[in-house]
# Entry
Amino acid sequence: MKKSASFLAIFLFMLGVVSFDAPKLSAADHREAPLVDGIPEGDITDVYLFTDPNDATRMVMIMNVNPFSVPAETPSYSLSPDLLYQFKIDNTGDAREDLVVQVVVDINGQGQTIRVFGPAAPTVTGARNGLLSGAPSAQGAFGNVIGSATGVQAFVGVRDDPFVFDVGQFFRILNGTQDVFRQIGTSFRGRAVRSDGTSGVDGFGGFNVTSIVVSVPKAMVRGSTSKINMWATVSQRVPERRGGGNTFTQFERMGQQAFATVFVPKGTPRDAQNAEIPEHDVANYSSLIPDALTVTDNDGTGNTIAGRANLLTALGLTALPNGAPLLLPGTFGNTSKDLLRIALLPDVLRFDLDLPATGQAIGQFGIQNGRHLNDPSIDIALQLLRQLADVHFPTGVTGGGPVGTRAALECSAFPSCQDRRVLVVVQGTTFNKPDAQLTDFTIEGNDMPFLSQFPYIASPHPLPGEPGTIGFPPQQ
# Structure
């Protein structure tokens, strides 16, 4: 049993991280690329897009920057006047922005005035952008709700970081002091289950971010259909001597949570990806994503959707307490090897303006209706990938046939596969919420309650010692 479970761990993690060296893997999109690491005001940690829960005619976009903001230093966090923050919206389906919402500030430090422009057609599309002309759609002070509840409404200020991930255990697994997120028998070292039914620790709990939240009427962004794509970018002002002024060059972007972190090697390739545009993603990054399993054994490996589901179930990793249940049935009828590429590329959030506020549209493509603040996006991604991604296994194991023309992830040297990242996804969850809630995809397990009114994202952790202070830093 130990050998089988170890083998499963190897192939499962390869579903999520391809074959890059372990030291190059970072946690989520916080401090995830060299150029971005030096500009925290421009480091996008997460992007969200959802229907306003209080008004189905409006949608809310959120971009968070300034990762790992310490509550004791809350007054020091702000945006940069040298940067252009943008939500880009494609309403024609070509992964090129048709509309933009731009946010800029006037000074460094405290006392910033926020100006929001758009949504409007950009002066130029792509990675080099100009500031929109005309009067701002909303204007006001940092930390305040500005604009109009019937037009463009915005908020820029310090908020709680809503991302949930057991980053401490993640690095322990990589470093070899632990094996999995939750202990399995005596063979795999992991966290014990606590009295509240959890075993994970939110490594981002206790930290704040700087949130840019913009709400607009859906009518302002609707194209010929109800489907739109959205992504966020941060661009740096081009110096005047180089024809700059109100011209900005993109150095950071984000669509789906953790796409770049998982599939693009850290370092120069990550910086290059951040400077790219979504319409080039299919050409640039398809080769990094494995083939998807199908209902038939097309390549003589025996690796099918049903076979993968049966293997996971037989090993006891699709039932609590050792793992998350299967997200897709073993009878799921995929016939396309490109399913994962279609789901992941281009790197944008897909959104249907006509779906209800609570609709996530979870399926073979992951979450296909934006991203809600409480979506357990990491768990959903891990569960889909462990069921659908093709892997080249050792000879004699289902999926161990010749590589041939397969875009399969490599784990043919079992059991000498030494990359400990293979253990990170073996259970399909990080157990950050009670087991009874693991199948509830409307609960993420954040450490602070979300607001019922705009700007919806949770209030920031207060200065140490003030009312509302929780344990900080979180126990790891």
User: Anything to note?
Assistant: The chain is about 15% helix and 20% strand. The first strand starts at residue 46 and ends at 51. The CA atoms of residues 26 and 458 lie 25 Å apart.
